[in-house]
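REQUEST ID: PR-0412
SUBMITTED BY: lab tech R.K.
PRIORITY: routine
TASK: structure prediction, single protein chain
INPUT:
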Amino acid sequence: MHTISKLAAQFGLSRSTLLYYDSIGLLEPDQRSEKGYRLYSEQDRVRLEEICMLRETGLSLERVQEILDSDGSNSARILKDRLFQLNDEINTLRHQQDTIVKLIGDKSLQKHTRNMSKNQWVHILKSAGMNAAGMLKWHQEFERTAPEAHQDFLESIGLDAIAIARIRKV
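STATUS: complete
OUTPUT:
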Protein backbone atom coordinates (compact mmCIF):
# COMPACT_ATOMS: atom_id res chain seq x y z
CA MET A 1 0.00 0.00 0.00
CA HIS A 2 1.11 3.55 -0.76
CA THR A 3 0.45 6.62 1.34
CA ILE A 4 -0.72 9.81 -0.32
CA SER A 5 2.60 11.56 0.37
CA LYS A 6 4.73 8.73 -1.04
CA LEU A 7 2.55 8.34 -4.11
CA ALA A 8 2.53 12.09 -4.75
CA ALA A 9 6.33 12.26 -4.39
CA GLN A 10 6.81 9.28 -6.72
CA PHE A 11 4.99 11.13 -9.52
CA GLY A 12 6.17 14.65 -8.71
CA LEU A 13 2.68 15.76 -7.74
CA SER A 14 1.45 17.67 -4.75
CA ARG A 15 -0.57 16.00 -2.05
CA SER A 16 -3.40 18.42 -2.84
CA THR A 17 -3.46 17.17 -6.44
CA LEU A 18 -4.17 13.63 -5.25
CA LEU A 19 -6.81 14.97 -2.87
CA TYR A 20 -8.41 16.75 -5.80
CA TYR A 21 -8.27 13.62 -7.96
CA ASP A 22 -10.05 11.79 -5.13
CA SER A 23 -12.71 14.51 -4.83
CA ILE A 24 -13.60 14.27 -8.53
CA GLY A 25 -13.50 10.48 -8.59
CA LEU A 26 -10.47 10.23 -10.85
CA LEU A 27 -8.28 8.37 -8.34
CA GLU A 28 -10.07 7.08 -5.28
CA PRO A 29 -7.90 5.12 -2.85
CA ASP A 30 -8.86 1.51 -2.17
CA GLN A 31 -8.52 1.71 1.58
CA ARG A 32 -8.07 3.90 4.62
CA SER A 33 -5.80 3.33 7.58
CA GLU A 34 -7.14 3.01 11.10
CA LYS A 35 -6.51 6.74 11.51
CA GLY A 36 -8.41 7.52 8.30
CA TYR A 37 -5.41 8.15 6.03
CA ARG A 38 -5.78 7.27 2.37
CA LEU A 39 -3.98 4.11 1.29
CA TYR A 40 -3.40 3.44 -2.40
CA SER A 41 -3.01 -0.02 -3.89
CA GLU A 42 -0.64 -1.04 -6.66
CA GLN A 43 -3.62 -0.85 -9.01
CA ASP A 44 -4.17 2.76 -7.90
CA ARG A 45 -0.49 3.50 -8.56
CA VAL A 46 -0.82 2.09 -12.07
CA ARG A 47 -3.93 4.21 -12.64
CA LEU A 48 -2.06 7.32 -11.47
CA GLU A 49 0.74 6.46 -13.88
CA GLU A 50 -1.83 6.33 -16.70
CA ILE A 51 -3.35 9.62 -15.53
CA CYS A 52 0.06 11.30 -15.59
CA MET A 53 0.84 9.93 -19.05
CA LEU A 54 -2.47 11.13 -20.45
CA ARG A 55 -2.03 14.54 -18.78
CA GLU A 56 1.35 14.84 -20.57
CA THR A 57 -0.59 14.89 -23.83
CA GLY A 58 -2.41 18.00 -22.66
CA LEU A 59 -5.75 16.28 -22.19
CA SER A 60 -8.16 17.76 -19.67
CA LEU A 61 -8.96 15.80 -16.54
CA GLU A 62 -12.44 15.22 -17.92
CA ARG A 63 -11.01 13.61 -21.06
CA VAL A 64 -8.54 11.58 -18.97
CA GLN A 65 -11.41 10.26 -16.87
CA GLU A 66 -13.42 9.49 -20.00
CA ILE A 67 -10.54 7.39 -21.35
CA LEU A 68 -9.86 5.58 -18.09
CA ASP A 69 -13.50 4.85 -17.31
CA SER A 70 -14.40 3.62 -20.81
CA ASP A 71 -13.91 0.19 -22.28
CA GLY A 72 -11.19 1.65 -24.49
CA SER A 73 -13.40 2.35 -27.47
CA ASN A 74 -13.15 6.13 -27.00
CA SER A 75 -9.43 6.23 -26.28
CA ALA A 76 -8.16 6.28 -29.85
CA ARG A 77 -10.75 8.86 -30.93
CA ILE A 78 -9.95 11.18 -28.02
CA LEU A 79 -6.21 10.86 -28.58
CA LYS A 80 -6.56 11.40 -32.35
CA ASP A 81 -8.64 14.51 -31.66
CA ARG A 82 -5.88 15.77 -29.37
CA LEU A 83 -3.23 15.02 -31.99
CA PHE A 84 -5.11 17.04 -34.60
CA GLN A 85 -5.65 19.82 -32.08
CA LEU A 86 -1.89 19.89 -31.40
CA ASN A 87 -1.18 20.17 -35.13
CA ASP A 88 -3.47 23.20 -35.28
CA GLU A 89 -1.84 24.72 -32.19
CA ILE A 90 1.65 24.22 -33.64
CA ASN A 91 0.64 25.93 -36.88
CA THR A 92 -0.90 28.80 -34.92
CA LEU A 93 2.26 29.18 -32.83
CA ARG A 94 4.47 29.20 -35.95
CA HIS A 95 2.30 31.92 -37.43
CA GLN A 96 2.55 33.91 -34.20
CA GLN A 97 6.33 33.59 -34.28
CA ASP A 98 6.48 34.88 -37.84
CA THR A 99 4.18 37.78 -36.97
CA ILE A 100 6.36 38.75 -34.01
CA VAL A 101 9.49 38.72 -36.19
CA LYS A 102 7.70 40.94 -38.74
CA LEU A 103 6.47 43.34 -36.05
CA ILE A 104 9.94 43.69 -34.57
CA GLY A 105 11.38 44.14 -38.05
CA ASP A 106 14.52 42.11 -37.41
CA LYS A 107 14.76 39.17 -39.82
CA SER A 108 17.77 37.81 -37.92
CA LEU A 109 15.32 36.74 -35.20
CA GLN A 110 13.84 34.21 -37.63
CA LYS A 111 16.63 31.76 -36.75
CA HIS A 112 15.34 31.69 -33.16
CA THR A 113 11.87 30.56 -34.24
CA ARG A 114 13.04 27.18 -35.50
CA ASN A 115 10.93 27.84 -38.57
CA MET A 116 12.32 27.42 -42.03
CA SER A 117 11.26 29.47 -45.01
CA LYS A 118 10.73 28.12 -48.50
CA ASN A 119 13.92 29.86 -49.62
CA GLN A 120 15.92 28.24 -46.83
CA TRP A 121 14.63 24.79 -47.77
CA VAL A 122 15.34 25.29 -51.45
CA HIS A 123 18.88 26.46 -50.59
CA ILE A 124 19.49 23.39 -48.40
CA LEU A 125 18.17 20.98 -51.02
CA LYS A 126 20.22 22.62 -53.79
CA SER A 127 23.32 22.58 -51.56
CA ALA A 128 22.76 18.87 -51.06
CA GLY A 129 22.91 18.43 -54.84
CA MET A 130 19.22 18.23 -55.59
CA ASN A 131 17.97 19.77 -58.84
CA ALA A 132 14.39 20.76 -59.73
CA ALA A 133 13.52 17.20 -60.83
CA GLY A 134 14.88 15.81 -57.56
CA MET A 135 12.89 18.33 -55.52
CA LEU A 136 9.74 17.41 -57.45
CA LYS A 137 10.35 13.72 -56.76
CA TRP A 138 10.98 14.54 -53.08
CA HIS A 139 7.61 16.31 -52.84
CA GLN A 140 5.84 13.48 -54.68
CA GLU A 141 7.25 10.88 -52.29
CA PHE A 142 6.42 13.05 -49.28
CA GLU A 143 2.84 13.41 -50.54
CA ARG A 144 2.53 9.70 -51.25
CA THR A 145 3.85 8.48 -47.89
CA ALA A 146 2.61 11.20 -45.49
CA PRO A 147 0.09 13.56 -47.07
CA GLU A 148 -0.98 15.26 -43.83
CA ALA A 149 2.62 15.78 -42.76
CA HIS A 150 3.39 17.13 -46.24
CA GLN A 151 0.54 19.63 -45.87
CA ASP A 152 1.86 20.67 -42.43
CA PHE A 153 5.38 21.01 -43.80
CA LEU A 154 4.26 23.21 -46.69
CA GLU A 155 2.26 25.40 -44.32
CA SER A 156 5.21 25.62 -41.93
CA ILE A 157 7.47 27.10 -44.61
CA GLY A 158 4.97 29.85 -45.23
CA LEU A 159 3.33 28.80 -48.48
CA ASP A 160 -0.17 30.03 -49.21
CA ALA A 161 -3.07 27.70 -49.99
CA ILE A 162 -2.74 28.10 -53.77
CA ALA A 163 0.97 27.21 -53.77
CA ILE A 164 0.32 24.25 -51.48
CA ALA A 165 -2.45 22.93 -53.71
CA ARG A 166 -0.19 23.26 -56.76
CA ILE A 167 2.67 21.39 -55.12
CA ARG A 168 0.47 18.64 -53.69
CA LYS A 169 -1.22 18.05 -57.05
CA VAL A 170 2.00 17.00 -58.82
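NOTES: Residues 75-104 form the longest helix (30 residues).
REVIEWED BY: pending
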